[in-house]
Hints:
Strand order of the largest sheet: 2-1-3-4-5
Order of helices and strands: EHEHEHEHEHHEHHEEHEHE
Number of domains: 2
CATH class of the largest domain: Alpha Beta
Structural class: alpha/beta
Bound molecules: magnesium ion
Number of strands: 10
Helix content: 40-55%
CATH architecture of the largest domain: 2-Layer Sandwich
Strand content: 15-25%
Amino acid sequence: MNILVIDDSKLMRKMVSAIIADAGDQPYVASGAEQALLMLDKKNIELIFMDVEMPKMNGFELTRLIRSKKRSWIPIIFLTASTDDSHLTKGIESGGDDYIMKPINSVVLAAKIKAMARIVNMKKELDTVNRQLLRLTNVDALTGIMNRRGFNESLKRDWKNHTRERKEISMVFLDIDNFKAFNDNYGHQRGDECLKQFSAVINTQLKRPMDTLARYGGEEFVIILPNTTLDGAALIGSYIIDALADAKIEHQYSPVAPYLTASMGITSSRFSAKNENMFIQQADQAVYKAKKQGRNRYSVYEPL
Ligand SMILES: [Mg+2]
């Protein structure tokens, strides 16, 4: 573990560092708040030993500052000469996790390092699992692309960037043509297979990591294209039509073509949607138009 010792006494810093090194861990030192914050920015500190009695900013104050700044939790153990019980309460309330009485007993200190290392490792495992879970909750289990929830999060982020940077953002809303007839005739298993193939074909048409393809629900998909003009989005629409024609996913029950096609609605921020929801509505309206015009095409949103 990387352990930071914050103490205004050089002797204490030396002594505690020596015990840490003996325990097989990596000590770093800081004489006060300024150095400590610098260290926390530079090094991946996993545990802090914090002197309480320091000039300028004391250990409690510094702990409060660290807790308010740092997003991830680092255990903080106070080193204090005070034997007052209320002192302990104050320390825990300021965000500390434990404390050791001065004069420092090297056996006690080494034991606390071991105990904290266990907690730190548990926290790391928990963080990893949480990250995996978070990713899973945003992914559509069938197609492996983003689900509605992931889409909502991405759009929120991209829309925010758009309003800040004032760059055009576009959206393509896709609806597979005659998917009900596909399911009714080929069965749901092949229907699922078809959704997988469809999303894979669409995915190949998106070249930038900033683009998001998501399954909106059922046979509806949506693409968010940040920093993309309406013409750019229309180009992607025509590429998708070509790609589906090349892929030829069989659909003999479609009146449109012997293979799977889609109707698409395209919009961009140039139509001044007030918010994300209105933006989606515009794209959805354009899909309706594409369907009315005969499907297997894209249609651009037209303001009334
Ligand atoms: Mg001191």
